[in-house]
Amino acid sequence: MNPVIVIGGGLAGSEAAWQLAQRGVRVKLYEMRPNAPTGAHVGGDLAELVCSNSLGSNQADRASGVLKNELRRFNSLLVECAEETALPAGAALAVDREAFARRVTERITAHPNIELIREEMKEIPSAPAIVASGPLTSESLSQSIAALSGEEHLFFFDAISPIVRAESVDMQIAFRASRYDKSESDDGDYINCPFTKEEYYAFLDALKTAERIELRSFEDAIESGVKAGHFFEGCLPVEILAARGDEALAYGPMRPVGLRDPRTGKRPHAVAQLRQDNLAASLYNIVGFQTNLKFPEQRRVLRLIPGLANAEFERYGQMHRNTFISAPKLLRPTLQHIQRDDLFFAGQIVGVEGYMGNIASGVLAGVNLARLLGGKTPLTLPRETMLGALCHYISHADLKDFQPMKANFGILPDLNLEKKIGKREKGQRYAARSAQALDAYLQENSE
């Protein structure tokens, strides 16, 4: 059997290549970095995390936790690598992003069935393949995808958060704690910068009036299109969110619930949280502070955050284009292209959002291509599973309202409960139903 081609060495492509290789399929994994940079990535390792370093909640009764458990059922390489490089992050699974990418690269390159090719794949192969080229797909490959599908790409803009050096945070003002932490220790997983009401409104005024970077034209997606709503709701720049109302941030990424300022013993009006970004704990990202402000403006405005008056920035926030295809018209829930059984798509380009969604789509694409090559029917996972529900969404959504989707209980079939139950118990029931449905389906399909 000739090697199959996987395009893209991000989260989805790396996972897809691994799933194929583990099933005895030879793989040629194409990754254009570092020879052809993307503008958002900084290194050449596989599975580099560009935005946050958090892979979401690890709790079994949360949507992200349900998806993680489904991926563990498939022996996901990237979930394993994430757990091996995990950092303290409360109930979330956060990683040292450099160690994580290095670990994935080592595992992929050591596999005897995987050949890593550092070249740009400029067109859709005619042989069996998985396209996991990500939101920053090259222009040549984008044109090839458009020629195959006859559909225009959809665009949305994503923004990444700034990273500060831990030593520059004033811990006389900031404090360590996780939400609802009742212990007396100062070993909380987050650094919290507490705002009084006056400090919050001074920060808000500066944020609203700060200068932004002019948006460039990405493949005919002009600034007017962005203003019309091409931001993904889950990654809104902090200045866009602030414009929605004076308390939008205080009820959003800066909500202070479950935290008390040790200086006053009271809950702050708002709080900016910093999450550990590397194993040495020398770098912290500002949670939820994706931004497109000019770099000098970021330095000026973000230093108004209590505790960050002398902050030193390892990386400023920035905005970049993300590309995804018209999946509801082009893909089946198996992630196969509607016109070619042996062509699969995976990752953010299909309209799944969040690191775990990307990894999950890579799992399914890899498993299904291996099954196809082995003469088996590709899996269409039950909608009661989180991955099955995600794949159903991207292949059945109304295109006019199509937005990238991350794991959430709202896309699962209703539980049809006779009486109202609490959020936690509902999550537990969703999780139990998902596990039962997945095990039964995989056993029935000899997977």
- For the secondary structure, the number of strands is 17
Q: Approximately how much helix is present in the residues?
A: 25-40%
Task: Please report the first level of CATH classification, the CATH class of the largest domain.
Answer: Alpha Beta
Mean pLDDT value? 87
- In DSSP terms (H or I, runs of 4 or more residues), the helix count works out at 13
Q: Could you give a short account of the major beta sheet?
A: 6 strands, mixed
**What's the order of the H and E elements?**
EHEEHHEEHEEHEEEEHHHEEHEEHEEHHH
Structure classification:
alpha+beta
Count the domains: 2
Shape: globular
The stretches of 5 or more residues where confidence is low (pLDDT under 50) are: 217-229
Q: Termini distance?
A: 21 Å
The Cα radius of gyration reads 22 Å
At the fourth level of CATH, the homologous superfamily of the largest domain is FAD/NAD(P)-binding domain
Q: In percent terms, what proportion of residues is strand? A: 15-25%
Strand order of the largest sheet: 6-2-1-7-17-16
How is the CATH topology of the largest domain named? FAD/NAD(P)-binding domain
